[in-house]
Amino acid sequence: MPTPRRLLVTSALPYANGDLHLGHLVGYIQTDIWVRLQKMLGHDCLYICGNDSHGTPIMIQAEKMGMTPEKLIEQVCRNHQKDFADFHIDFDNYYTTHSPENKALVETIYERHLAAGNIVKRTIKQLYDPVKQMFLPDRYIKGECPNCGAKDQYGDNCEVCGATYTPMDLKNPYSTLSGSQPIQKTSEHYFFKLQEYETFLKEWTHRGHLQDEVMHKLDEWLVEGLKEWDISRDAPYFGFAIPGEKEKYFYVWLDAPVGYMASFKNLCERRKDLDFAAYWDKDSTVELYHFIGKDIIYFHALFWPALLHGAQFRTPTAIFANGFLTVDGQKMSKSRGTFIKARTYLNHLQPEYLRYYFAAKLSDRIEDLDIHFDDFVQRINADLVGKFINIASRCAGFLTQHFAGELAAECESPELYHSFAEAGNTIAEHWDKLEYSHAIRHIMALADKANQYIAEKKPWALIKEADKQAEVQAVCTMGINLFRVLMIYLKPVLPQTATQVETFLAIPPLQWHDKDTPLLKHRIREFQPLITRIDTKQIEAMKMAAQEDITQTTIAPPAKTAPDTINLDEFAKVDLRVAQILEAENVEGADKLLRLKVDLGEETRQVFAGIKSAYTPEQLIGRHVVIVANLAPRKMRFGVSEGMVLAAGSADSKELWLLSPDSGAKAGMKVK
After folding, report:
1. DSSP per-residue letters across 448-469
2. Helix, strand or coil for residue 336?
3. What pTM was estimated for this model as a whole?
4. Model confidence over 7-54: pLDDT tens digits?
5. SS3 content of the chain, % helix, strand, coil (to 5)
6. 555 contacts 75 by C-beta, under 8 angstroms
């Protein structure tokens, strides 16, 4: 048994303004597997997380939804926790950065740096939206690239030519919030003197805390030289006010990582056996690990260690970064139905399928992970069902039917069992070093050996011979024990299946050291199906549902929310026309859509409408409706939609009514 360690593990805090999608889950599944391994090895390991709940985007989103930021983050946090739980991601504590614990810790860190002379104030120029009456973050400013002239580029970099610049450099800038032309205004801001920590960071980043790719990237930034970091934002802003200020707030990226500390502080308040100082004081011997996405390395590997070190707190033991998720080799796409929310996936497929697939693809390097759904189906069906579960299903029936579920008293092949148990040392090392794909390959190679053993022994043939009964029991006992060892190795990935196997084998929760001792002279229960094959129809249904999700949100706005206003010129751009429905039919695999063929007078079009809950195809044929005729065609998996049918609906979307013209209207007429 290894010497028990004390570890505190965190995952990047998901932003509290929208749903989780499959790309988010790469990091959380990676972390959860690692944490579950540590706990199985007997280590004292705590896993904490929470929602990143401050910033302009949340303030803007809440305004759009007609609710307070507090109400928005409460709903999003609840949704996130439900998604995480259903993917078997088991946090010891899940909290929010909008908390009294976080406020107190942020102020402590700020005040310690202020006292040390690490915080300065100076006046800067920014772009200001005169309509919304607020300073604009880069993401809310667009204009023409000053380098290549490309239109509709954000205020920090051009997606066409790759140039970087400041918002003030944009040509013809406009606010994406109001459409108005921003003006330049000056404002006094607080800055953290990050450059004061260059020497510390050059040493810290080379002491084994980071992956090699991260270390080399940071070397590039350090060579360029570190600059002061703007840690304040002007009102209106949703966040913590800077002490002594009324119109200045801490930038979200200052208080977000402090949320790790706050979540643990909250856990300490509920668990009196935990001591906050023992984990976070500068002399702490507890191991601290951060798992993050590669897009937030700069904040976690430079700003965060400097903030902690300068405020007399401990720094991370290690930071592990993961890559992004691609689908079929490309970025997730809403138009192709591959931008899939976590909940959409859960509505169609088992969570452990994704956990296993990610594990089979992940490595210790910062590489993008690609999910190809044909490969996804093949790998789950071949590995988990065809290899792993097959071992138990082939042996359990003989034991329950012929031996009342009783396992033999001895291993039929001690050498084979010993080789499986010994392999656990290497597999645990693979898991611990984040070499997940190596671990999976090793486990599946063992599964092949187990199936080969059973195939060679042929218990189905031996059972027909009266004098071979004891041998059948011994062979099937051996098969069950090899399956049990493989379940130990896969338990960090398949926790729900492990619980079912523990019930089937009538044993306590499996621990890693259980691999060393076979299960003998023990009665098991009747085998029940554990993991079922994936049907490709499930994948298609999920993709269709993902396309239906595009224009929906899981956070319904209140019924009395007033819509944003538009002017007459903007409304005049919408071409509303009368159309007659010529054909209507259900869309296979889509819960809400009907496929309509409509007559617009001079042409016919195909339109997909989400009105299936209120109308049958038979009710629609021949009916006149109003459609948006100049809406850009939208490519969907089941065809191209060439317009939008207008309907009214209740706030909860449980009732729908098509908008229809009075009698006498003809197809093609313009609605005025």
Report:
1. HHHHHHHHHH-HHHHTTSGGGH
2. coil
3. 0.83
4. 999 999 999 999 999 999 999 999 999 999 999 999 999 999 999 999
5. 45, 20, 35
6. yes
